[in-house]
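Q: May I have one protein plus its fold?
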Amino acid sequence: MRLPILASILSLLWSGVSAAHPRPGPVWAESAMVKIRPQTPPRVEREVELVGARNEYLSFQVGLHGGVSGLKGVRVRLPALWNGLRRIDGANILLYREALLDITRPTPPDEPGRWPDGLIPDVDEVVGEQRSAFPFDVPAQEARAVWVDVRVPESARPGHYLGLVEVSGQGFREYLKVRVTVVDATLASTSPLRTAFLLWPPHVCRAFTGNPSCPVDTQVHLLKQFHRLALSHRFTLASAFPRLPEQPTWDLPDYDTFDERWGPFLDGSAPNPLRGARMTSLQYLGPATAPDLADFQDEARARGWLRRSFDYVGDEPPYGTTWEAVAERARLTRSVAPDLRTFLTATVTETESHGLIEDIDILSVLVNFIDGTQPPYEGNQRPKYDGFLARPNRELWLYQSCMSHGCVEGEPPPPENQPGQGWPSYMVDRSAAKARGMQWLTFRMGATGELYYQTVGLLSTAWTTQFRFNGNGDGTLFYPGLTSIIGGTTDVPLPSIRLKLIRQGLQDYEWLKRVSDAGDPAFARQVAEQLIPHAWAIPDDGALFERARLKLIRRYLELRARGH
């Protein structure tokens, strides 16, 4: 009898919460596509409506404003969402207090100030411990925010789920309505967009132990947590395996040991909220010798990893690697491990001009060079890759870098970064839309993978500064969840708001691909092109992304109902 009583109480409470306040109050409901900064004014919205599939993460925010005297002892709860006697609750609802990063050296052309990014959990999503998100205070005349994730269970029945967010503190108690509409579809646990987000383990050691040379057992323990968190955000940490600062190759005692440690993440058997989530890429990190490359190819084939594996034969030649070194490495790999994919960050024009087009399987191209504004890559370059992609087993990937905001401090930023537009960006002091736009652009350009060069570059100082390569957050997407900062008894990696937005972009990519695969690729392309007409024109208006996503969901359901 308890569940019907609770559902009835919820229904009464829901009907009793006013849908409109004539004036902004201390608490409001906010989209995930708005970064709530201290200077953000209060709003009047008291209800949030979300639409999604089973096995999809849906996010929103609770905004709080201190008003004249501030708010003390704030706590936020969302116990459950109800559909009749069915509910979404427990580990499927995650709450975080948004921490502010005080930015004194802004990413051009922004101004100094405080931006939300680090997420301090109520209960963390890695080991499930209670942490120190609540209670907290909101200073007078300033705003703060709480991030809420709702994962729709695979078993959820389609329909409307209703819930109330309870926000309380000294002298006040407020409620916000939450309506989640679950559509009759299920997203895959593994994104159809392949990803290779890189991670240098010594940075993790430094952040969690103070020493970049922490023992291999410590690295294994920490890196497993990073892999779990990454896969729950639908991307792959392709290089996150134990290494030492002076050792460029992985610590690989034998392949059986490697398989025992990391095989569950590669085959999808590791515990994860997204059941069956598995890595979509694996970077070869062994010595550049014929026996080691050949051995890796044989072991990867036998263990089912080979199609996802690649040998990174050069980075941005001639700057990161000489063209001569690229040719030597690529041809070595071709000769001794011909089925191991060779991976290069370069344009097709450069690769062809150096006679290497036959030796490269995956070209990862900078967004500024796939649809640029400056010669020799001015305009849409995508048709130039058709010949390359017509060859067997070839892939086009995209990546972003500091070129999108200007890599050198003091130099003027790219002229394309005008208000309301600009390149995709994973910088803290950029709009939420800039972090979500990369995967839309990847689909729009017909690419099938995304590379990101580093995820823990300034992990050890992430709570205080992430300024690197003239940008805030360049190469740092996680936070160190030390118990001294977040409470509990176990140190864990923490997500940033940017990780949540990247996950949203990966889910958007899946909706785009589903519409395309279901029989209407023209509609999917049209929606993507209307949202992002050029690589340098990612809109800052997050509502545009939400409307575009809903168009895709509606079209997919129509196509499936018609039997396409």
In short: Residues 2-186 form a domain with the Immunoglobulin-like fold (CATH 2.60.40.10). The two ends are 44 Å apart (CA to CA).
